[in-house]
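Need the bound structure for iron/sulfur cluster, inputs here:
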Amino acid sequence: MADPMAHNELPQKKKLYIETVGCQMNMLDSELVVAKLRNEGYELTLDIGQADTILYNTCSVRQHAEDKIYSALGRIKTIKQQKPEVSIGVLGCMAQKDQGQILKRAPHVDIVVGPGQLGRVSELLAKAKEDRAPQMAVSLARTGGSRDHVTESFAEYDPLREPAMRPTPHQAFVRIMMGCDKFCTYCIVPSVRGPEQSRPPDGIVEEARQLAEQGVKEITLLGQTVNSYKFKTPDGRTTRLSDLLERLHDIPGLVRIKFITSFPNDMTDDLLQAVRDLPKMSRYLHVPAQSGCDEILKRMKRLYTVALYDDMMARIHETIPGVAVSSDFIVGFCGETEKSFEKSIRLVERSRFKNSFIFKYSPRTGTKADDLYADDIPEGVKKRRNNDLLAVQNAICAEDNRPFVGRTVEILVEGPSKTAQRHASEGFGPIQMTGRTSCDRIVVYEGNARQAGELLPVTITEATPMTLFGEVMTTALVGIGA
Ligand code: SAH
Ligand code: SF4
Ligand code: F3S
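Answer from helper R.:
Posting the output first, comments after.
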């Protein structure tokens, strides 16, 4: 008898390869793009050589991020020459910023899709094939804060999402705001991501609930200035971030909630009290300072002074015991003298950040700083300042991690450490696992993969500037945390 399955074979799935650069917003966007394409018959591959569709979700924040993508596009030119049926897409912030220039520089690209149009990726891939012509979908140009920028993409969330694209199966990002209205003079983000919009709280809570039902233990709320979150309901009531946190805190299954990135001016007391009083809140805040010098902050149009930042740090530490704060700095911004740079060093010294992300100023076409000021700090000086500030920060990391030795802390286990993943095929013995404390410190310990997603007490035995090493407590001691 003929095999009934023989005529009933499933159509071959299209293989999708995707690379993501940039911030957590982009990681979330990639998850949503992949979720949508999966529903339309694509499957993920990690092997670019096997892919039918190659997507880059891009970042414009610094020149280096763009260079990386243009060189990747250069490398895959041969793939397109050998297999013209392969589709290539440039998505995200660089697509919005460079638009048609991408097709000029890399004519083998099939689709260019800005962050506000990502819901249309599959439609555009199909149209590019059908018309045998590249397709571009970007939002309208943004003119100094007007609301004509389309940012409708993914306003409606796909509850299925895509677990394979999450940081780990137990961690997920949830966008609570889109865009940015701050227009810091150095920054391209407002012009590629559109105006600031807060998402309705009911949708956020519903999404978080669904994620928790799928086994997610930790959500990270995302926004460029996440603590500016404000949603006005038609009855005139305003939901602040602190109100939203209270609602999210009630969701069964979630054990940890974080939010990034905060803006110093909007670090209100109600928010700090919510972080203190809600036990699921991570005692961790990311509040970029950018510079420790008032004249530079003014040129950057950061809207606060160093005194305000210092006052905010004092309020944070007074309100939330055991809190950790991290920061971002730009070194070598236009007009930054040695004196102004030293003020950034002093700010790092007195703020004792858990960590700082330090960037060399990179002029961005279309920003105010690029129009108004000369990029007058030589690359070598930027590099030295970057190293110097990093050295100060690293010394603080080492000093502040050391007292953890001997203490028992509660960690949320994320999964096997990178080295353990590499050696996973070697056997079933205990492996190196990683997790984070409530104040976002990374802890590595010997355990097993089944512990992923659990809260575990770990006694710290060793500390390096970036990592704490520990041992799991016996079950008799479960429940003791720090
Ligand atoms: N919304 C966040 C940051 C978004 S961009 C905030 O306001 O804090 C992430 C970081 O990149 C910024 O904090 C800043 O330190 C850095 N950055 C942004 N534009 C830059 C530029 N043109 N050159 C160098 N670093 C930049
Ligand atoms: Fe950029 Fe400033 Fe907005 Fe942050 S707040 S995204 S640095 S413009
Ligand atoms: Fe980059 Fe866009 Fe994020 S420019 S930092 S990916 S919002």
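Comments: The first helix runs from residue 24 to 39. The chain has four domains: 10-137, 166-282, 290-400, 405-472.
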